[in-house]
Amino acid sequence: MDRVPILSLGDVLLVSIQVDLQDESVVALQEDLAERIVDSGATGVVIDISAVEIVDSFIGRMFATIASLSKVLDAETVVVGMRPAVAITLVELGLSLQGVRTALDLQRGLAALRQRRAEREIPLADESDEAVEAPAAARD
Amino acid sequence: MSVPEPVDELPINTGDDVVRVRQAVRARASAARLSLVDQTKLITAASELARNTLVHGGSGVARVETVQRDGRPGVKAVFTDDGPGIVDVEKALTDGYTTGSGLGLGLGGSRRLVDEFVLETAVGQGTTVTVIKWMR
Predict the structure, then answer these.
(1) Is the pLDDT at A57 greater than 70, yes or no?
(2) Which residue of B has its CA nearest to A56?
């Protein structure tokens, strides 16, 4: 069984699928990614499928599973580089990839994750305001 | 250069075999000069059907060959298993219906991806699915 390597790029995990994936490798990738997100504290995952010739329902479901899984672990997943023929086939197959964020290429995918991180930094400022009031509650 | 076999006969017993079926279909579809989109559709359908053979049939065989009709080349793939067969064919072809852990898109979805789709099944005797994609 081929194991798909997971690369670390700052706080983003990068997965570039370069082999014809069999189902066992797909399942292993899901498990490996979950572990790596927790170990590294990554906030984003980019799955590059520019070398992938087909996405069937099993592989499509993996994208959806990884997207929900990473969300639960406080990271966002972006699938990048889908070939036009793959996109056409996916739609006809009936796979909507709900909840899966996509971008045309790696650069755009990384930009989307950066933007998301910037958006997350605003609510952090609110939390620090609350932190000032916190000791009041702690006194009781 | 070796002359290609008239029919590729591939066992489907493991996940690796499903990958090999995809590769055999890809080689045939490319040789038959199907468009890239049509190649992708046929390989995707073959992947779904080969997985069905493995998951629902237990194991089986795929036969892949190049066919001709009115001078037009096409690729035919036949998936056969000796599994339990399909009780309700109409239901099995409905999107979202599944008896396994999948999405229920395999049969209905692959039917949409090919030009010809024939499903033969009998309870207790197995299932054979034949698909063809023609060059446009």
Answers:
(1) yes
(2) B44
Contact A20 B47 (CB under 8 A): no
8-state DSSP, A47:
E
Cβ neighbours around B9 below 10 Å, total? 12
Q: Where are the domains of chain A?
A: 6-139
pLDDT value at position B74? 96
| pLDDT-wise least confident of A73-87, A126-140, B111-125 | A126-140
Beta carbon pairs, A and B, within 8 Å: 75
The architecture in CATH of the region A6-139 reads 2-Layer Sandwich (3.30)
Which one of A22, A24, A56 has the shortest CB-CB distance to B44?
A56
Which residue in chain A is spatially nearest to B106 when comparing CA positions?
A57
Nearest to A110 by CA among A4, A10, A5, A6: A10
Q: What interface predicted TM-score (ipTM) does this complex get?
A: 0.88
Name the packing angle between helices A84-93 and A57-72 (round to 10°).
90
Architecture of domain B7-134: 2-Layer Sandwich (3.30)
Q: Do A23 and B51 touch (CB under 8 A)?
A: yes
Give the nearest partner residue to A89 out of B102, B106, B113, using CB atoms: B113
